[in-house]
Structures
1.
Amino acid sequence: MDKPKAILFDFDGVLADTLDDLFLSWKYAFSKFNVNIKKEDYFLLEGMNVLKIAKNISKKYGLIIDDYKKIVEIKNKFYLENHSFNFYDGVFELIDILKQENILIGIVSASPKEKLEKTVPKGFLEKFDVVISGDDVELGKPNPDPYLVAIKNLNLNPKECVVVENAPLGIKSAKSAGIFCIAICSTLEKSYLNEADIIIESFKDLKNTKILKKLF
């Protein structure tokens, strides 16, 4: 593709190393209903609307309750009280370079806006030209809507953008929107990410991909 005009990043598992804490939060929430979940139960659904994650995992384990929002509320409370927060190596360096080169940047996350605002270090979100949270779309990943809303806000078309993802549902969302997708093996093996156009091992490898080299 030609030199992209925008790079859109998923947040958890792409920019921030948060998925182990998120898994522990889901694990704790389900333990309150006597369900012991595994990492793959969450990692393969990561990027999906949180209520749908709760429903999907509940269905897998045969858990039926009157309101699945209870699981999400327990998960959110545990995460806010117990999470640590680390960005992957190379995140700030790449963002600074993209800003210097006048490349638009965005975050497209399934996380609720409240979670992003309460847990992300102050000033970080303001670096981005668009931030789409799980509250901003009715149909989340794997539907194309989150990425389509982002590029519409940037006044671009899909062929002018690149998405960076780490999860199968996020990749499917990007590809359904017609956007070139780079996948990072931060949480899952390559075999789960094969719908992406490029697969890399870590965030630091992004700047060495052919498509990003065009930016510099």
2.
Amino acid sequence: MIASPGGAIQIHSTCADDAAPYPFRFRQDGELRIVETLPLIVAVVEDLLAGCAPETVALRFHRTMAEFVVECCVQLRRPDGPEAVALSGGTFQNMLLLTQVEELLARRGFRVYRHRRVPANDGGLALGQAVLADRME
């Protein structure tokens, strides 16, 4: 979506906490929860055709993804289950998304874990594999 790190930094620096998310819906299909992205795509295209600034569209899209992650966590949380969420993987190298998800989850009562010393992407995976290999010898 964002072609250069400079663009991501610019969007992050102009981030407004009140950026309204785009619509999305969940539907149940047996035991599967399916997110319907058509409303999101339609709203993004409408904003772009209406001349909305790409930065505004990007902010709203990020907020939508953050809201989506949080809603998934809320739907999966069981009354007797843990209230901890680990945010990991390359997706959460996106600091805008990470901070939004972290804040929204905390507001919903989740304890949030994230990478602090080890990278969230393949670097962390490689480190884990190296530690495991070392212990297997």
3.
Amino acid sequence: MNPVEIITAKRNGEELSPDEIRYFIDEFTAGDITDYQMAAFLMAVYFKSMTTDETVALTVAMLESGEKIVFDPESKLYVDKHSSGGLGDKVSIILAPLMAACGLKVPMLSGRGLGHTGGTLDKLESIPGFRTDLSIEEFKAGVESIGCIISGQTPDIAPADRRMYALRDVTGTVESVPLICSSILSKKFASGPNSIVFDIKCGNGAFMKDQKQAEHLGKSLINICKAMGKGSAFLVTDMNQPLGQAVGNALEIDEAIAVLQGNAPADLIKVVLSLGECMLTMGQVASGEHALELQKSKIDDGSAFEKFLEMVAFQGGDTKSLTKKSPLIPAKKVFLVKSEEAGFIKAVDTFRLGRLIIEMGGGRTKLGQKIDHSVGFIIHKKIGDEVAPGDIIMEAHSSGKPPDDYLVRAFAGCIKPGKEKIKEPKLIKQQFK
């Protein structure tokens, strides 16, 4: 087979055979197909898409490019969760220890920032000493002993995805359903869960801009899971504004801790509990109102936060830094963004807010770039809220660049006021079990 012919075929919209897809992934993993050839292939898929059969073949090839973690295949307790990405989405950091406190086993392989969205691993690395590079043996031991682990891919787990994921982030090929599905599922299945719950974000701050796109992604994931013998469910949740209040790596850890200690923004805890109810149902631990009450009880009695501290300690993190009332990583500068007019917030440019975080150093524009964990913002006014001149709408945490006056104008420009009050977006748009 010839890699150029495969790239050309996909560029022309032809359906690739499983053998062609397997060859391309195997040769890329072995180093015989270059990064620039893979980048061309990714762009061809972005424009021409893939059939379900092609996407299943791609997922399997990426999954089998490395080692797989295997837990008890008969147990329903091994349940994972994945988000398609949004701004302020620290749900995994809250949900994994909460589910472990409820009795599930959560083997979670997560990623770094992708496009304008933050990455769970980047957020957790705000914690001094926290390791996201656990070996397969450490990962398995942590899941079995603690009940949850959030780590990154080792070089041995879905290595094809590891390299493709990084390339997608810097080649403008993130928003492709086949690439999203194969990336998610290859590493998720490699970590050993028997079922997965998906949080499909929808809105101007998500990769899926409207509900139809989000449902298409959710159903595509469900179909692939079904073909591979795995349980699955999905929720479509709103991302027309940040989730919770904090956005930025260390700031989101601070907010996740607050939620685990019982002090949660209403929108954030609703998404957490809704996803948790799905996970507990799939794990056959609890369902419906019982599942919701079980989760609330584990937050109220402190066991969810204790489980988080156990996970952090197991992964080498400094738990003392998480029990202080001061910010985890204070920013060099904190300044307020205030409203200049009276009215009601009618829209938030969530995508632009995500790009501003990257401009501030909190995200990447090239492979391997170091990020500033301290930068970000806290949003005080959201869609539907009333504002008066001088009201604080945001609190920006900066390292000093870009200049303060630029950031004030840029952040203020992301919050769109209007004269009439509007309803805030529906948070849970669809639930598919």
